[in-house]
Write a structure and sequence with these properties.
The protein is α+β, with helices and mostly antiparallel strands. Helix content is 63%, strand content 7%. It is built from twelve helices and four strands. It has a four-stranded antiparallel sheet with strand order 1-2-3-4. A hairpin with a 4-residue loop joins strand 1 and strand 2. The relative contact order is 0.07.
């Protein structure tokens, strides 16, 4: 009887073990949760979108090229967008270039523009704004650290509609375009030529023949001087002078005889 009870107990334990559900792992529970289902759906959507992009690019290569060019250009503009420190560096550099010139040689337009920017910078009135693809530098009425009521009151700030009149420079593709345009011919004082006639104030570029002639003369100036012909000419003159003096002496001797 005892052996029958043991066997019966063993069979009951085996039956309960077989009927008990298998415990799932933590990874399985995470996959079957709501967050796992959402992640699987997101990955599936991205996979389908990438497949559609590849198929659309293969079917319409011209349109895909235009879109890729636009995206690449936008990324290049964003990557090369100049910041405030680059403007300060460019301003100090052009100011040093002008400082190396005499006041009588500087271009009045370049000097006036740079001096006004330096004055605003020293007063703390220069502001920088990033627009994603380009940057703007504009002037403000007060220093950012000023504690005046007019400078701190939000109701008295300059409205955005006046920003175009306050813009001083535009930064795009790593350059400050207005500053570069103002510094063109910064070492030419145009006031020196304002009293000249009209046909002398404007200069035209030289022609091809003039350029070739100047280059030829420049190359010839490097050559060594040849004095052989000049020496022969001097010898001939000396011989002719000596012959004339001998003939003159003979005539004098004949007259005396």
């Amino acid at each position: 009887m005892a052996s029958l009870r043991v066997v019966r107990r063993m069979f009951c334990v085996a039956a309960e073990t077989a009927a008990a559900p298998v415990t799932s792992s933590r990874w399985q529970r995470l996959k079957n949760s709501k967050a796992g289902a959402w992640c699987r759906g997101l990955v599936s959507d991205y996979k389908e979108a990438c497949r559609e992009v590849v198929v659309g690019s293969w079917e319409r290569p011209l349109k895909a090229s235009v879109y890729a060019t636009l995206l690449g250009g936008a990324w290049a503009c964003f990557y090369t967008q100049p910041d405030r420190s680059s403007f300060d560096t460019a301003l100090l550099e052009v100011s040093n270039h002008l400082g190396l010139l005499s006041p009588w040689i500087r271009n009045g337009t370049s000097d006036g523009h740079v001096q006004s920017l330096v004055k605003l910078r020293n007063e703390g009135r220069l502001r920088h704004a990033s627009l994603g693809l380009l940057s703007l530098v504009y002037r403000a009425d007060y220093d950012a650290d000023a504690t005046l009521y007019e400078a701190q009151c939000s109701n008295l700030l300059v409205p955005w509609r006046e920003l175009p009149q306050r813009v001083l420079d535009v930064g795009f593709i790593g350059r400050w375009w207005l500053l570069d345009s103002k510094m063109k011919n910064f070492d030419v004082n145009e006031d020196e030529f304002k009293n000249l006639p009209a046909h002398m104030q404007a200069t035209s570029p030289p022609s091809v023949q003039e350029v070739e002639r100047n280059e030829r003369l420049h190359k010839e100036s490097w050559l060594a001087l040849t004095v052989e012909e000049e020496e022969k000419e001097v010898d001939r003159k000396e011989e002719s002078v000596s012959e004339e003096s001998q003939s003159q002496a003979r005539k004098e001797e004949r007259t005396q005889a």
